[in-house]
Amino acid sequence: MFFMKKESLNHLNIEELELIQKIKQLTTKYNADNISRTNAYFHYYRRHPEIIWSFLASMVSRNAGWNMCDLEGKWFPQIINKKLRKKLFLTYERANWLIFQDAYPQLLLYQYSTKKNRPMFHLLRYFHVSSFMEKEWNVFWEHRQIKRLMISLIINEQNMIENPVIHHPVYKKKVFQTPHFILQDWFHYSSVLFPTCEGVLYGASVNGFKSITKRIDLGKRLADILFDQELYPSFYHFAKKTVHTGSRYDYEYYFKKRPRRTTPFLRCTYPIIKHRRHYQEDWSKKKRLKRKWLREEVKHINPFDITEWYLDKQAHIQQVITLINIVKD
Questions:
Q1: What are phi and psi of 225, to 5 degrees?
Q2: Can you tell me the distance from the alpha carbon of 291 to that of 62, in angstroms, rounded to the nearest whole number?
Q3: Among 251, 227, 229, which residue's Cα sits nearest to residue 238?
Q4: Contact criterion met (CB below 8 Å) for 203 and 194
Q5: Which of these, 180, 125, 59, 132, lies nearest to 288 by C-alpha position?
Q6: How far apart are CA 102 and CA 126, in angstroms?
Q7: Is 191 helix (H, G, I), strand (E, B) or coil?
Q8: Cβ distance 184 to 190 under 8 Å?
Q9: 125 contacts 134 by C-beta, under 8 angstroms
Q10: What is the DSSP letter of 48?
Q11: Which ranges of the chain would DSSP assign to H, the alpha helix?
């Protein structure tokens, strides 16, 4: 693993040193667990609606929480042993912790820049943020290209977790090569959902998760759905009205045929995980930026409304698990 050279703080003034310390404290505070991360992203978006990535991040973070709680819900423990469930949880947790640890200082530095009415993005290097993002924040400050900044943040986050998570020897062997993960990937069982208070689900199914290009493409497709002119008000209303608990009952509550709760509350299920970040070299200095990553146009393979598809998939999974248990008996 490569380690980043720590930047010297000697030439910074008192204001800059205090700001760095304050941002580090706030990032640690709100990076405690999936609930605090989700809430921090959304509260930030309400203060700075021009930073649309933060709303996308909050909605994707809700999905991470639901995926975590699935592992200790009614169904998955019947077919996935405790050891693998723990590894799957830690994979979700590690990836989301790393993204927040990298992204939240960027958001706070922008917030501080707006207060001072001058860009402070030269301080990003002290949080080990890529030079790619330092450049992109300065471009945004000058030209206010809202969508470009969002896509840049998507590109950055996916490149940033590539080595620590996707290609990490432990996660690669113990998670991404397991039959459970491969089957989910092949059959599109995993999906990112954007619920509404009308009980309708929008979103996209996930496959090819190990491909960075596919993950970036998914992020752009999800953003295109989330900020659709007609759909956005419903998504925002859901996020504002619905407390995030990690249980899928957060949105199942709005279904016309309201099911029983089958997934637990996240904070009643998992402990706070203490992470350590191993600083890598700046990915943007080691990797060529692909043109297709920067394209704003997206191609949707499936309809936005995936309510029926999702309910069918859930029923199918439950039938398969029931069948497996009958065969085992």
A1: -75, -50
A2: 30
A3: 251
A4: yes
A5: 132
A6: 11
A7: strand
A8: yes
A9: yes
A10: -
A11: 14-30, 34-47, 53-70, 82-116, 131-143, 146-160, 169-174, 179-186, 212-226, 232-241, 249-252, 283-286, 291-294, 307-328
d(CA 149, CA 132): 11
Q: Name residues whose C-beta falls within 8 Å of residue 209's C-beta, 6 or more positions apart in sequence.
A: 176, 185, 190, 215
Per-residue 3-state assignment (H helix, E strand, C coil) for 201-268: EEEEECCCCCCHHHHHHHHHHHHHHHCCCCCHHHHHHHHHHCCCCCCCHHHHCCCCCCCCCCCCCHHH
What's the pLDDT at 187? 41
Calpha distance 240→232 (Å, rounded): 12
Each domain of the chain, given as residue ranges in start order, spans 14-328
Structure token digits, residue 305: 């409304």
Q: Which of 290, 303, 145 has its CA nearest to residue 216?
A: 290
User: What angle, 0 to 180 degrees and rounded to 10, lies between the N-to-C axes of helices 82-116 and 131-143?
Assistant: 40
b/e map 209-239, b = 16+ CB within 10 Å: eeebeebbbbbbbbbbbbbeeebeebbbebb
Question: How far is residue 104's CA from residue 216's CA, in Å, rounded to a whole number?
Answer: 19
Write the pLDDT tens digit of every residue in 165-184. Answer: 876 666 566 676 665 565 45
Cβ atoms of 242 and 197 closer than 8 Å: yes
Token duo for residue 28 = 């640690």
Q: Residue 281: which of 150, 132, 91, 170 has the closest Cα?
A: 132
105's CB contacts (< 8 A; 6+ apart) are 23, 24, 27, 124, 127, 129
User: What span, in angstroms and rounded, lies between the C-alpha atoms of 299 and 155?
Assistant: 17
98, 160 in Cβ contact below 8 A?
Answer: yes
108 in Cβ contact with 19 (< 8 Å): no
41-81 tens-digit pLDDT:
999 999 999 999 999 999 999 999 999 999 999 998 998 88
pLDDT, residue 232, reads 98
